[in-house]
Amino acid sequence: MTDQSNRVVIFDTTLRDGEQSPGATMTLDEKLDIAELLDQMGVDIIEAGFPIASDGDFEAVSKIAAQTKSAVVCGLARANFTDIDRCWDAVKHAARPRIHTFIGTSPLHREFQVRMDTEEMAEQIHKTVAHARNLCDNVQWSPMDATRTEDDYLARVCEIAIKAGATTINIPDTVGYTAPRESADIIRMLLERVPGMDEITIATHCHNDLGMATANSLAAVEAGARQIECTINGLGERAGNTALEEVVMAMRVRHDIMPFDTGIDTTKLMTASRMVAAVSGFPVQFNKAIVGKNAFAHESGIHQDGMLKHAGTFEIMRPEDVGLTETSLVMGKHSGRAALRSKLENLGYELGDNQLKDVFVRFKELADRKKEVYDEDLIALMSDSTAEAMNDRIQVKSLKVICGTEGPQSADLTLVVDGQEMRVQETGDGPVDATFNAVQSIYPHGAKLSLYQVHAVTEGTDAQATVSVRMEENGKLVTGQSADTDTVVASAKAYVNALNKLLVRREKTAHYMAG
Ligand code: KIV
Ligand code: ZN
Q1: What's the chain's average pLDDT?
Q2: Which terminal CB of the chain, N or C, has fewer other CB atoms within 10 Å?
């Protein structure tokens, strides 16, 4: 049985801090799928979003609250009553709701961001935490930029928040500035100086600007923190947040020196990583710890020889522990619906009957075009954000391209825009350029294409291509993604997916400005 004093609570903020990462905007359906997987894999708390930020964020947090079976569902709020009330309205239908409220406490944040002196801020913290606690019995409070806040002031405001009713105090390293020894010292200092600090849960929230987020989080745990805030693949602002898969596997593999337990089913880590990479358009670097393509690959002769004799010679964890199974030939066009359901369940996707019906149709289309359908193809099919595009304002109806050595390459494209079919023919420097010019001529926009990236899902010339397209408008980035055996079709759909996200982002910004 787990010793409760050694149980570390996993707080996942992929859908809040992760989604804040430039370009990682997610649609409602994508957020619901990720939240469902996080709940299934045993995440204790899902930070589902920032409800005051937009109607879309509010809706996402409310829907995640309603669908989540086990995890606590948390929303973020600044230190004012309007934010906190809106947050409560979004999370209150969860079986286990939490309000997370924060304010920047470091000298720089006090002077330039919040524009409050220490006394005004102390007062505001007391009022807002007490207000949140009147609404909800599970309240988390964060002194943003805690690691650059003076010890005396940090201890003082933590005490105020605890007295006002906070049940978790989070110590964020907002700018990724701390180092392991200091991260631990801050937690020890607070435990020593703040009355009641040992009766609430202490959380650590680290950013990775100096590449120390995982080490800093684990050091905080050794000093007494019992909640780690993290994201799948380390997605997050700038260099990202602590990677969930890294802290969870570090505590599991080195349990001898870090005797802490989590409730995470680690065999779902790979599925979660692939889903978040596909949805965010942020591919996982090949040599990324735990979930990178090369994390379990052995290239050198000496390593391969050792592996054949005993896997333990060069492997500290088994690939299957993180959900990495041998690539297997799954099915072909004669495979039935039950087989598809069972295969998808093995890969971590639980589908309702209607969803299965839709996926089965797309699977058959793929199997018609591609003789051999692998696990990776099914994952790409499931992650294709253009598949559930029924509600998108712009949709790809058909595309024909002419390309080859004799230019000009041209694209004949039909889009449906707000329910109306529109067709054009355009030329360009290659079939993708011609296709993108055609989209631009049907739906003119000022956004700049900042990334176009193609990945082959499997090997072979009939492999599906996953295409990511990132666009920038007024400093805001969005990423679209799609997969198809035809690279140009995948490109068109990924581009249109990015445009749809841009429209959602525009709406969000307009709402935020108006508020
Ligand atoms: O990094 C940070 O300080 C945050 C807070 C909102 C907790 O994300
Ligand atoms: Zn953060």
Answers
A1: 90
A2: N
Inter-helix orientation angle 180-193/151-164, to 10°: 50
Q: Is 174 in the pocket of ligand 1 (CB under 6 A)?
A: yes
Q: Tell which wins on pLDDT, 310 or 320.
A: 320
Tokens of 226: 């019992």
Instruction: Kindly state the tokens that stand for 310.
Output: 């005993």
Q: Which atom of ligand 1 is nearest to the CA of 144?
A: 3
Provide the pLDDT confidence category of residue 443 given band limits of 50, 70 and 90. very high
Taking Cα atoms as reference points, which of 469, 470, 473 lies closest to residue 510? Answer: 473
What 3 state SS string does 4-66 have? HHHECEEEECHHHHHCCCCCCCCCHHHHHHHHHHHHHCCCCEEEEECHHHCHHHHHHHHHHHH
Q: Give the whole-angstrom CA distance, residue 141 versus residue 147.
A: 15
Instruction: Summarize pLDDT for 105-126 with one digit per residue, the tens.
Output: 999 999 999 999 999 999 999 9
Q: What is the DSSP string of 367-407?
A: HHH-S-EEHHHHHHHHH-TTTTGGG-SEEEEEEEEE-SSSS
Enter the pTM of the model. Answer: 0.80
CA of 17 to the centre of ligand 2 (A): 6
Q: How far is the CA of 16 from the centre of ligand 2 (A)?
A: 9
Distance 209 CA to ligand 2 centre (A): 11
Given pLDDT bands bounded at 50, 70 and 90, which one contains residue 232?
very high
The verdict on the CB of residue 172 being under 6 Å from ligand 1 is yes
DSSP run (H or E) holding 246: helix 244-253
Q: Does residue 16 line the site of ligand 1, with CB under 6 A?
A: no
Mind listing the pLDDT tens digit for each residue in 336-367? 888 888 888 877 777 888 889 988 998 888 88
Which residues make up the environment of ion ligand 2, defined by Cβ < 5 Å?
17
Could you give the CA distance from residue 376 to residue 384 in angstroms, rounded to a whole number?
12
Average pLDDT estimate for 65-71: 98
Is the pLDDT at 28 greater than 70, yes or no? yes
Atom of ligand 1 nearest to the CA of 104: 3
> Quick one: which of 292, 294, 314 has its CA closest to 303?
314
